[in-house]
Amino acid sequence: MKVILVRHAETEWNQRGIIQGHMDSPLTARGALETSALLATLTDVAYPVECVYASPLGRAWHMGQALAGHFLCPLVAQAALKEQAFGHYEGMSSAQLQYDHPNEAEALFAQDAGFCPPGGESLAQASQRVIGFLHELQAAVAYQMLCIVTHGHVSQGILALLKEGKIDHFSRYAQPNASYSVLEMMEGKCITLRWGIATHLRKLTKLNN
Predict the structure, then answer these.
(1) 83 is catalytic
(2) Does 126 carry a binding-site annotation?
(3) Is 59 annotated as a binding residue?
């Protein structure tokens, strides 16, 4: 079974550098363009997606709706695909967190996947719930090609675990909004075939310059 792992498109809080977590904000105009660009590239590579599973948070659900409509397939909400819960940091700008709590900010975004924000969860915990869902899915369904829509930070943890077998270097796997990765699951194992694919966004970058 192959899985296309998608990050949602740009939101207003992404643009402003505000930590979202389990909170939410609307897509930007660029986010709408990113969604269209992703749909076009997935059409070009002709992935026969049979079902889309998406985080129920609005920004990911919007992408899930677009993908399911594009592929004319079912869309299923899955809470296990939510972003890491950042607790008391949600709604705060990354710059403000860095200013007020530099050690915590460094741990959260670069160094320590085991760091748990006050009132939230660690990246290690969030990544394991997504990996657990992927393994449950493999055992429960007969699809050959799925699409999973989730979030940026938790995707870093997932990719680190799949590529390196450990989460320590999660910051290496940062990727832009509306990028995607391709995973393959077989015999109880999950491997990353390609990750952080974002070539379809190059034209958008040129438009902004």
Answers:
(1) yes
(2) no
(3) yes
* Token couple for 186: 């077989």
Q: Is 101 annotated as a binding residue?
A: no
Parent domain of 171: 2-206
8-55 tens-digit pLDDT: 999 999 999 999 999 999 999 999 999 999 999 998 888 899 999 999
Task: Specify whether 8 is catalytic.
Answer: yes
Which of 34, 83, 90, 121 is the catalytic position? 83
AA identity, residue 30: R
Taking Cα atoms as reference points, which of 60, 69, 41, 54 lies closest to residue 3? 54
Q: Report DSSP letters for 50-89, one per residue.
A: -EEEE-SSHHHHHHHHHHHHHHT--EEE-GGGSPPP-GGG
pLDDT truncated to tens, each residue of the chain (209 aa)? Answer: 999 999 999 999 999 999 999 999 999 999 999 999 999 999 888 889 999 999 999 999 999 999 999 999 999 999 999 999 999 999 999 999 999 999 999 999 999 999 999 999 999 999 999 999 999 998 888 899 999 999 999 999 999 999 999 999 999 999 999 999 999 988 778 888 899 999 999 988 655 54
CATH code for position 99: 3.40.50.1240
For 161-200, give one letter per residue: b (16+ CB within 10 A) or e: bbeeeebeebeebebbbbbbbbbebeeeebebeebbbbeb
At 26, list the tokens: 């609307």
